[in-house]
Amino acid sequence: SRGDFDLLREIGSSEIVSGMILPDIEAWDQPPRYWWRYAVPHPLPQASASGSQAVSKLGKLLVGHIRKSAPSAADVRIDRNVESPLSNPFRMLSFSLASRVAVCQACDVLFSAGESGDSAEIAISNGWPEPIEFGPHPAKSRVEAIDALANRIMCGHDVRLMCWCYPKRCHAEVVTKLVKERVKCLLKPTSKRVSN
């Protein structure tokens, strides 16, 4: 195994910073360019007196094509090749526009349902093949992944969702919509209870 200081030097750090968030253990077998962005300090937004989170500057949320876009530290792949919980579990039956629109709409229904979404039920009702889901609790993993992306944006970090479809109709539009909704929710002041 690598020593901590060697690892920090490898990713270009000149000093040890407290409060580092290190990537999940699965990322350690990847070259540093795939995971170094997670090894930098991530300040947590602080709640203000009004109840909303104090945010100096929000990060940007973009969408890019995996092959056509130059790699950046903000990239988050959401295609099926990386078994992301944010992958579209529905396969296109053809490369027609109608098939693309149908699977993106199904993805919207599934992802918008949160933890209660059932991809198998949606696939059966549309006469599609069995969906491709990753992990033992894909719906919960999706919600957690949306929250994680929203938190990155709240901390001022840019996020670029990467898929093979973009700029054609892509399920990344659905993920973008949900992340933006989550950020808005985090920015809203919490309601105060009125005592009688």
Describe this structure in words.
With about 200 residues, the protein is an alpha/beta fold. It contains six helices and five strands; from the N terminus they run H-H-E-E-E-E-H-H-H-E-H. The strands form two sheets. Strands 3-5-4 form a three-stranded parallel beta sheet. Strands 1-2 form a two-stranded antiparallel ribbon. Helix 5 crosses helix 6. The N and C termini lie far apart (about 60 Å).
Number of helices: 6
Helix content: 25-40%
Beginning-to-end CA distance, first to last residue: 61 Å
Mean pLDDT, to the nearest integer, reads 75
Order of helices and strands: HHEEEEHHHEH
Class per helix and strand makeup: alpha/beta
Strand content: 5-15%
Major sheet: arrangement of strands:
3-5-4
In short:
The protein is an alpha/beta fold and 196 residues long.
